[in-house]
Amino acid sequence: MSVPPPLRDTPPSRSPIERAWHGLAVEFAPRVARRSASSLQVRGQRLRNRAFFILQCAISAGVAWFIAGNLIGNPEPIFAPIAAVVALGQSYGQRIERVLQIVVGVAVGVLVGDLFIHVFGSGFVQLAFVVAVAMALATLLDAGVLMTTQAGVQAIFVTMLVPTDGAFSRWTDAVIGGIVALAAATITPASPLRKPRRHASGIVNEIADVLTESATALRTRNIDDADAALDRARASEKALTTLQNLADDGLAVVRSSPFRRGHLPAVQAIADLLTPLDRAIRNIRVLVRRAGVAIREGEEVPKAYIDLIDDLSAIAHAMADELAERHLPQKARADLRDLGERSTYVSDHPGLSSEVIRAQVRSAIVDLLMVTGLTHEEALSYMPVAYSLEHDHDDEVDDDDDVPTQDLTRRDQ
């Protein structure tokens, strides 16, 4: 007698909706996992970046409470840590003037609220009146919007909290918290000093990449690559605004913190790079645009001119590496001088776009020489005399124009 085989469990048939959901899960689950891992990395990096700031606020709150409660003798010095954390928190990443504005706003709001509630008591009518008076007084003190807002906010806190027995004790607490915040703001991490240099290095690297893409587009006669390089060159100008803000913050840090005064020359040197970097980006944008025109019109750009672009890109990459190493890229001066010498040689019967490209390479060499720390006059002295088309550095180039302002004269560039 044969024994029937054991029954196997067969999965129940899925409905079309279940199959669709299963397919979506199989397709998107890996993507979600990758994004989750990336998100965790970003959040972890954000926490590391703000670790000093968090510790600074926590210690400042504790110190403000200790001074107001233990040294001054206020049994409930709640406004001391509030003022310290508010001042530091709302000025995070900003200059110390912002801290001072917030401290003044907090002190004005608490003073007005403390004075009014001490005389007239608390209530919704008193609340409205106190907020109006505090913000009006802050405005009369020539306060900005941030300081005026803080005056109103702190007046609300004072009005809504139960008054203490001591007159103006909360104002005293707020002043103590503000002083602690100002002291803490002078103790800064090194990031406001490092970030401008790193960002400047990134801009020079971007310039080098745009030059490489432009040379490749000219060699392959690929108009799409030329257009992409032009878009990238235009977008790189936004990085200058970021560099300006970072440099301003770095200068404010070294000028306000006695612990960072020695870094002033280094930060100022990076701030001084804004002008030559702006000129370099403008000149390279014109170069890239003319490369696209040459490709569209079928103009053959001489190989020697394309080599100039490639070599300038290699020099710019080396300069970016030097900037990242905390010093101006002075080693590049000799290479830039040699490249300037090569740029004096004009090919036989070059086209208009080709000569504009050569001229913009020469202008960019001058700009990058200034990035090495030379003045404009010193950078010009590095460039041999040549008959060449020049773009005037002082004239802003309009993206709608294909050809920069030019003249054909014999001059130093």
Structural commentary:
The chain is mostly helical. The chain folds into 2 domains: about 50-185; about 190-410, Phosphate transport system protein phou homolog 2, domain 2 (Methane Monooxygenase Hydroxylase, Chain G, domain 1, Up-down Bundle), CATH 1.20.58. Helix content is about 70%, strand content about 0%. The chain has a two-stranded antiparallel ribbon with strand order 1-2. Helix 1 crosses helix 2 (about 80-90). The longest helix has about 55 residues, at about 15-70. The protein is elongated, with a radius of gyration of 32 Å.
C-alpha termini separation: 106 Å
**Count of discrete domains:** 2
Strand order of the largest sheet: 1-2
Largest sheet: 2 strands, antiparallel
Order of helices and strands: HHHHHHHHHHHHHHHEE
Radius of gyration based on Cα positions: 32 Å
Main structural class: mainly alpha
CATH classification, class level of the largest domain: Mainly Alpha
Q: How would the global form be characterised?
A: elongated
Query: What would you give as the CATH superfamily of the largest domain?
Result: Phosphate transport system protein phou homolog 2, domain 2
The number of distinct β-strands equals 2
What integer is the average pLDDT?
77
CATH topology of the largest domain: Methane Monooxygenase Hydroxylase, Chain G, domain 1
Low-confidence stretches are 387-413
Range of strand content = under 5%
